[in-house]
Each structure stands twice: as C-alpha cells, then as structure tokens.
Amino acid sequence: METLHIAAFSDGDIGGNPAGVLISDAHPPAAEMQQIANDVGFSETAFGYATDGKWRVRYFSPESEVPFCGHATIALGAALAMQHGAGVYELELNEANITVEGRMEDGVMSAALQSPPTRHTAVTADQLSGALQLFALSESDLDDRIPPVIAEAGATHLVLALNSREALAAMSYDLSEGRTFMNANGVVTITLAYMERPDLFHVRNPFASGGVYEDPATGAAAAALAGYLRDTGRAEVNAINIVQGEDMGMRSLLRAEFTDEAGSSIRVSGTARVMA
Known about the structure:
The chain has helices at about 30-40, 70-85, 125-135, 165-170, 175-185, 220-230, and strands spanning about 5-10, 15-25, 45-50, 55-60, 65, 85-90, 95-105, 110-115, 120, 150, 155-160, 190-195, 200-205, 210-215, 240-245, 250-255, 265-275. By secondary structure, the chain is an alpha+beta fold. Strands 1-2-3-4-6-7-8-17 form an eight-stranded mixed barrel. β15 (about 240-245) and β16 form a beta hairpin. The longest helix is centred in the N-terminal third of the chain and has 15 residues, at about 70-85. About 50% of the residues are buried.
C-alpha cells in the first residue's frame, strides 16, 4: 500500500498543508492506521476505501484519530481525481456523510468539500481566560466584532478573533500546555483570526491536540469559522478567502462559500500539489 503525500490548499506550486492519503481495498486495523499516520508525520492522514458506492474515510493525526479533517479531505479529493477521474465523491465519515469534488485542469489539481453541518456554542469564562493565558494575550487584543466562540463543522474549534495582524504574527505558546488545554476543553484546534476585510481573513491554527504546533491550512476550521460568521449574522458576504501559513513560510489559500441557511454545509475549496 502506497501512502500519497499531497499538499492541500497550496498557493500555486508552493505552500499548502501536507497530508497523507492511503486508498486501499479496506481499512487496516486502527492501530496500524495510527502507526502509519505517525510514520508519515503530517498533521493528518486520510484512509479511504470504496464501499456501496461511497468512500469510507477515517482520519488520523500522529497522536489520535479525529472525526473530520478538511485539508486531508481536499488531498483525498485530488487523489481520487488522479486515480478515478474528475467528479463528486460521496464520503462516509465516522460521524457524518459529506462529499468531495476532485478536478484536474491544465495540470492543476483542485478539490472542494462540503462540510458537515455547522453549529456553535458560547465559550465559558474559564475557557476564554485559559486560551488568553496560553497565548499570553489579553482581552484588549480581541476583535469585539467577532466574539470568542466554540465553532463546529465536523470538528470542534475555539475561535479567537484578533484586532491586529501583528498580534496574529506574534503567536506563541507551549505545545504541552496547548495539548492539555485543548484536550481538557474538547477542541481539535484553536483558530486565531484577523479580519483584513469582510471577505479576507488571515488565520493561524495551533493543533496541539494532535501533537502539531501549527497547521499551515485547516479546512475544517475554515468551515467552522465561516459557519459561525454566517449563523450569527456577522458575514457580510457569502464567501470568505483565508490566507494561512504565511507566518510559518507555508502560505496557503482557502476559500469558504456558503448559503444564507443557518447550520447548512460550507463549501471549502483550494488547489493541491503532489509532493516529492
């Protein structure tokens, strides 16, 4: 079995978030998938096989299984397009059914996923104070137009909107403390976001719960952020572009599009490139 290495949400032929993709006749045992993901060393590896007209998919980080991963789904869509042709593929995840569309035009691979439904809950005072302490931030660093929230679109993320690009660039935290905080609060990542314009966000995503200091592109978090903005009436447009990974030298581009229907799926798209 060959594990493909594909960078999702790339910026042309650079950047993007590397993901492993293993397409096989059946899933290996969970312990073996966990070991493969650890050996690959990327933040996520997607495992898929065809069954009853769908693709059964599971996602593993180097340290744990997660219910949904956006960038690994984009990588999977690109891999399916390479192996089976362009089209829309139905995916059966652990907790939801979604689709991914894979395309290749003029040598450029792209993919678009439809996320699980979106929802959000308020952060508690303890969650907010713990997150601020983790990143050495204060409430004066927050953008009061986008209050902190726990947002979901297949996976759970704590969202902190910052009021300056400089505060975002200065992000720093202790990985062990971040893992403890995320696991204790049931969040997969923490989204730190700066809104340059209503249609343009700069984002960083610590992923300590999976043993990864920072992801250069996070499709699940992009869907959760877009859903939160839409579902609370804070979205001024029906699509947002997200620049992620700049501060770690891996610039990535994501686009999230949505209807006005609260809770409905978010379309997250981007290009992909095969890694050597």
